[in-house]
Design brief:
This protein is an all-beta fold. It has one domain. The chain is 0% helix and 49% strand. The strands form 2 sheets. The protein has a 7-stranded antiparallel sheet with strand order 1-2-5-6-7-8-9, with no helix packed on it. The protein starts with a strand and ends with a strand.
Length: 172
C-alpha cells in the first residue's frame, strides 16, 4: 500500500507498507521451507522387532498432515502467519531505498501429536533490514541483515543471523 505515493520519474520520499495474514490447515507447502515445522509421521509400534522398523505409507509431503500414533487418525497441521514490512525511497533521487520486515508463523497443534518434540518447530520469527544503493546508472548494490528464531517443540531456541551483500547490473 503506498502511503507516500511515487511515480516512475519521481520516487524520492515514497513510502510503501506491506502486510499479510494467513490461517489454514495443511498449507505448509505454501511456505519456505516446504516442510514447515518439521512434522512427519510418528513411528509405528514395532512389537515384532522388524528391521527396518515399519513406517507409515506416505503419499503426501511432510509438514501438511500427521497421524496419531495410537489410533491412526489423520490431522492437518495448523499454521497462522503474518508479515509486516515497509520500504522508503530516499531523497534526493529516490534511486536508493531502505526496507524492513517482520514475520511470524506459529502452529497451535503441531506439538499435540506423537512427534519428536526436538524435531518439530512450533514458532518461527524473522526480522530483516535492507539497504539498496544505486551506485551509477545500471550498477546497484544491496545489503541485508536478517535474524531468524525457531522455537522447537521441546522449548529450545535456534537463532540464525545472516548478512547478504549483492551486486546487480540492470540491462536497459
Amino acid at each position: 500500500m503506498p502511503i507516500l505515493p511515487s511515480s516512475l520519474e519521481h520516487k524520492k520520499n515514497a513510502l510503501n507498507l506491506t502486510a499479510n495474514y494467513t490461517y489454514g490447515r495443511g498449507i505448509a507447502d505454501l511456505y519456505t521451507p516446504g516442510t514447515m515445522g518439521g512434522a512427519g509421521f510418528p513411528p509405528l509400534t514395532n512389537s515384532n522387532g522388524l528391521s527396518p522398523a515399519p513406517t507409515w505409507p506416505q503419499d503426501i509431503d511432510n509438514g501438511l498432515v500427521t497421524y496419531e500414533q495410537q489410533n491412526g487418525v489423520l490431522h492437518a497441521i495448523e499454521w497462522q502467519t503474518f508479515m509486516l514490512g515497509g520500504q522508503y525511497y530516499l531523497p534526493p533521487s529516490g534511486r536508493d531505498w531502505i526496507a524492513a520486515n517482520y514475520g511470524y508463523a506459529s502452529s497451535a497443534n503441531i506439538a499435540n501429536y506423537d512427534l519428536l518434540r526436538a524435531q518439530i518447530v512450533t514458532t518461527y520469527t524473522l526480522w530483516d533490514a535492507v539497504v539498496y544503493v544505486n551506485v551509477t546508472g545500471p550498477v546497484n548494490v544491496a545489503g541485508e541483515f536478517a535474524h531468524i528464531t525457531d522455537t522447537y517443540g521441546d522449548g529450545q531456541l535456534a537463532k540464525n543471523d545472516r548478512f547478504m551483500l549483492s551486486g546487480y547490473y540492470t540491462f536497459y
